[in-house]
Amino acid sequence: MGGWAIFCAICGGPFSSQVNIDPEGTDEDCYRDEVLRDFNLGWLDDLCALGINPDAPGNDKSFLTGVGGYFDYGAVEVVTGEDPNVPLQNNAHFIAYHDYAGIGDTREPHIFPFHPICYKDILQRCIYQGKSKQIRKDVLFDVLEDLNGGRYVRLQLIYGEPEPPADQIWYSNKGQEVLVANPVRISKLDADFDLIMKSLDKKAEQDQNPQDEDIFNKLSPELRHEVFKLLPAGSILALKAASLAMHTTTLSREFWKHRLRSEMPWLWEIHDIDVFQSQELEDKTSKLLLDIQKKSQYTSKNDDYIFGLANRRRIWGVCEQIQSRYLEKLKNISNTDS
Ligand SMILES: [Zn+2]
């Protein structure tokens, strides 16, 4: 029997870009080359580890290593990085999830492995909703430890659709290429956003809708705000694009951010753009949001979605499961402290 693979605690994906790809696209046990040809799979090779060092000084014994990769037999090899808590005695060699070789007290302390982007770009954002707070690593370690068990190749979480395989090796199932698409750097999404960015700061075209035909003129500003409160983000933009009265009714930044964060928390690129500059921009953005809602959803029926974004949305769902446990633990800690 050879070694075995372990998977990212956050996304459930492999730690190797060497996935099976079939140029013909006919093999059911291989990804299709035509799908992955333009994708950079390099992000899969990177791994960092979260662990506890009992010998670290101070109360917080947790550490986050620098970047490295997966070796085999559950062992990872990383660079120490900047965290002073990383134990130095074993040349940054760690065992992921569970030390099968050790028995009882001789078991080595294990770490949790993840892709750096899954941690920094997705989990960090999900837990603190864009606020510039850092994850408390000791609390996160506790959360992951609670979820550690079973076969010790990933956590006991719902990893979403398509379900990443959790076998001895990574199976590259045809049609599930989405699982290896970079969830943070998404060129298709950049192209869509370029259209929006190009419209920013363009002078608004005046009088697209003459005021006297605009029925929303008859509503007081308070009532217009009540209308906005009832609508999803895309419809708010569509309404503003169609009515000058609604366009000129200002929405607070907090309201808008909150609306976007609750509907599309995983589309962070849009959260900080001022999309209310012109009706043209509102129109474009409204269509983009509608399109993205659809194209961020994986389906086994066709390839009509943005691969990286569908993967991001799936991973966001995993991060939300971690987030609720994390915040719960944090709340309990502050309750005991006070
Ligand atoms: Zn990952």
What overall form do the CA principal axes indicate?
A: globular
Low-confidence stretches: none
Strand content: 5-15%
Biggest sheet: strand arrangement: 4-3-8-7-6-5
- State the separation between the terminal residues, measured CA to CA: 53 Å
| Rounded average pLDDT | 93
Radius of gyration: 24 Å
Structure description:
This protein has 338 residues and is an alpha/beta fold. It has 2 domains: 163 residues, no CATH class; 109 residues, no CATH class. 38% of the residues lie in helices and 9% in strands. The protein is built from 11 helices and 8 strands. It has a 6-stranded mixed beta sheet with strand order 4-3-8-7-6-5. Strands 1-2 form a two-stranded parallel ribbon. The longest helix has 31 residues. The protein is globular. The chain starts with 20 loop residues before the first strand and ends with a helix. The mean pLDDT is 93. The site of zinc ion (ZN) has 7 residues, from loops.
Can you give me a brief rundown of this structure?
With 338 residues, the protein is an alpha/beta fold. Helices cover 38% and strands 9% of the residues.
